[in-house]
Design goal:
Layout (H helix, E strand, L loop, with lengths): L1 E3 L24 H15 L5 H5 L8 H9 L6 H13 L6 H17 L16 E12 L3 E12 L23 E6 L6 E3 L4 E10 L8 E5 L10 E4 L7 E9 L5 E11 L12 E7 L1
Parallel strand pairs: 1-9, 5-11
Antiparallel strand pairs: 2-3, 4-6, 6-9, 7-8, 7-10, 10-11
Helix pairs in contact: 1-4, 1-5, 4-5
C-alpha cells in the first residue's frame, strides 16, 4: 500500500483583476450555456466566484467556477451543479431535484453542440375526398323524368402523425479509470478538534480501474478558516492497489465548522474521475 503526504501551507489569496467578459450567447451552445450561468448568478445577487467557493460552500474552486461562466469550454457536470446548487437551491430556494433536471438538460444539450430541439410543428391533416354520385328523379307532369347528379365531398379521418425522432445525448463515460473510497483512516467526519492545533487527516482510496495512477494529486476546492495545502501529491498506484493519502491541517483560531473538499486532478489541475464526488474533511473546532 502506498502513502502520499503533503506539507501545510496557507490558503491561497485573491487578487484584483479585470472584470470577466461575459460570453456572447449567439456564438454557440457552450457560450449560451455560460450566459445562462451568468443570468443565474445575477439573479442570486451576483456573488463573486471566491464567495461561491468559500462562504457559500460550493465544492469547486473559484477558478473552475469562473471558467464555467467564461463560455470557452463546457465545464464538467460536477462543477456545473456546484455552481447552480449554491445559487439556485441554497440562495434562491428553488427545488433541488427540479433544478438538477433542468440544468442537466441544458448541460447535455450544450455538450451535443446544438440548441434544444424546438417542438415539432403541427402537420396539416391530409384530407381524402371521395365523390359519390347521387341520382334523383324529379317527376315532371306530362313530359317524363329528368335525372340530376352532383358530387358530394366526404372528409376522411385525419391521418395519424408519426412520432418525431429525437436525439439521445451520448453519455460521457471513462470505463477504464475509476476509484473507490475505502476509509477515513484518521479524523472521521464530525471529529472535534481544539482551535489552533495541527492534525493529520488520512483517507484510503483504491484504484478500481485499469489505468495506473501517475502524476496525480488531490487538489483543494474551497477555502475555510482551517489551513490546509492547496494540493497533495498521490504516489503511483497500480490497478487494484490502495493508497493512503495524508494531509496536514491546522485548525482555525476561532470555534466553528471546517469542511474542506478535495478532488483528484492531473499535474495541470484538470479534474479527473468526473463522475466521482469530492472527498472531504469535516471537523468542528472548539
Amino acid at each position: 500500500m502506498a502513502r502520499s503526504s503533503g506539507s501545510q501551507d496557507g490558503g491561497t489569496g485573491s487578487r484584483r483583476g479585470r472584470r470577466p467578459v461575459r460570453p456572447d450567447p449567439g456564438s454557440g451552445p457552450v457560450a449560451l450555456f455560460a450566459h445562462r450561468l451568468w443570468l443565474l448568478k445575477e439573479q442570486a445577487g451576483d456573488p463573486s466566484f471566491a464567495d461561491m467557493a468559500g462562504r457559500l460552500g460550493a465544492a469547486a474552486s473559484k477558478s473552475s467556477l469562473a471558467a464555467a461562466a467564461r463560455g470557452s469550454a463546457l465545464p464538467t457536470w460536477e462543477t456545473t451543479w456546484e455552481f447552480v446548487r449554491v445559487l439556485a437551491v441554497d440562495r434562491l430556494g428553488q427545488d433541488e431535484e427540479a433544478t438538477r433536471r433542468e440544468w442537466r438538460a441544458y448541460w447535455e444539450q450544450a455538450g451535443m453542440g446544438h440548441e434544444p430541439d424546438p417542438p415539432a410543428p403541427d402537420r396539416p391533416s391530409p384530407v381524402r375526398k371521395r365523390t359519390a354520385l347521387v341520382a334523383a328523379a324529379i317527376g315532371v307532369a306530362g313530359t317524363g323524368a329528368a335525372l340530376f347528379a352532383w358530387a358530394v365531398p366526404l372528409i376522411g379521418e385525419s391521418a395519424q402523425r408519426e412520432p418525431v425522432p429525437r436525439d439521445t445525448p451520448a453519455q460521457a463515460v471513462t470505463p477504464h479509470d475509476d476509484s473507490v473510497f475505502e476509509a477515513d483512516v484518521t479524523i472521521p467526519d464530525g471529529t472535534v478538534v481544539k482551535r489552533g492545533t495541527s492534525f493529520t487527516k488520512i483517507w484510503r482510496l483504491r484504484n478500481a480501474g485499469t489505468v495506473p495512477w501517475r502524476d496525480r494529486y488531490l487538489t483543494r476546492l474551497n477555502d475555510t478558516a482551517c489551513r490546509a495545502p492547496e494540493r497533495v501529491a498521490i504516489d503511483p498506484v497500480q490497478p487494484g492497489e490502495s493508497v493512503e493519502i495524508e494531509v496536514r491541517v491546522r485548525a482555525a483560531a476561532e470555534p466553528g465548522r471546517c469542511k474542506i473538499y478535495w478532488k483528484m486532478t492531473n499535474a495541470e489541475g484538470a479534474e479527473l474521475l468526473a463522475g466521482k464526488k469530492p472527498i472531504f474533511l469535516d471537523v468542528t473546532v472548539s
